[in-house]
């Protein structure tokens, strides 16, 4: 793995100047490497990690397990790419186990997500079944713990 990719994965919110210092290269070199990674479609974008518990975002998030029939000559790829093109779909993964695809969906309301599943997703040819799970609360996002209040322990404080 290239050092800059490792730094992107583990470095959190480092800017290019900080990356250059850690990699012992110039900031121009870091910018050039990032540009190359974008051209090669290795680096597809940057995304902030948000604690939506502090923000009334009005976004409903759901995880959908999808069972599909593989297509001759295309396997799961063609249908997975078609599902991934929907605006509501945040992420789509091929999985092993009891279902074939794991789809992360965002919607303005429970009804909008339900309508997406019943009107768009489940009606696609090749989709055998879906199971929708609504996300109620996030405890960890992309490696960051989401803390809503300071940690409390059940132990009493000890004083000398």
In short:
This protein is of the alpha+beta class. Helices cover 31% and strands 21% of the residues.
Highest CATH level, the class of the largest domain: Alpha Beta
Uncertain residue segments: none
Secondary-structure content class = alpha+beta
Q: C-alpha Rg, in Å? A: 21 Å
Q: Helix share of residues? A: 25-40%
Mean pLDDT metric = 84
How does CATH name the architecture of the largest domain? 2-Layer Sandwich
CATH topology group of the largest domain: Alpha-Beta Plaits
In what order do the strands lie side by side in the largest sheet? 2-3-1-4
Count the DSSP helices.
Answer: 5
User: What is the general shape?
Assistant: extended
Kindly estimate the percentage of residues that lie in beta strands according to DSSP: 15-25%
Number of domains: 2
Per DSSP E runs of 2 or more residues, the count of β-strands stands at 6
CATH homologous superfamily of the largest domain, by name?
Answer: Lrp/AsnC effector binding domain/regulation of amino acid metabolism (RAM) domain
- Provide the succession of SSEs: HHHEHEEHEEE
Q: Report how far apart the termini are.
A: 52 Å
Main sheet makeup:
4 strands, antiparallel
Structural commentary:
With 160 residues, the protein is an alpha+beta fold. It has five helices and six strands; from the N terminus they run H-H-H-E-H-E-E-H-E-E-E. Helix 2 (16-23) crosses helix 3 (27-39). The model has no long low-confidence stretch (mean pLDDT 84).
Characteristics of this structure?
Alpha-Beta Plaits; 160 residues; 21% strand; four-stranded antiparallel β-sheet; 2 domains; alpha+beta; single chain; two-stranded antiparallel ribbon
């Amino acid at each position: 793995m290239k050092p800059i990719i490792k730094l992107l994965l583990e470095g959190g919110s480092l800017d290019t100047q900080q990356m250059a210092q850690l990699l012992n290269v110039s900031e121009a070199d870091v910018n050039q490497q990032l540009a190359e990674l974008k051209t090669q479609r290795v680096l597809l974008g940057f995304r902030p990690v948000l604690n939506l518990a502090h923000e009334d975002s009005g976004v409903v998030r759901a995880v959908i397990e999808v069972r599909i029939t593989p297509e001759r000559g295309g396997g799961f790829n063609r249908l997975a790419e078609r599902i991934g093109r929907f605006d509501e779909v945040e992420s789509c993964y091929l999985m092993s186990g009891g279902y074939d695809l794991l789809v992360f969906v965002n919607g303005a309301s429970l009804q909008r997500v339900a309508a997406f599943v019943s009107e768009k997703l489940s009606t696609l040819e090749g989709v055998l079944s879906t199971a929708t799970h609504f996300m109620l609360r996030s405890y960890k996002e992309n490696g960051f713990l989401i803390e809503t209040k300071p940690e409390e322990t059940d132990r009493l404080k000890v004083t000398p």
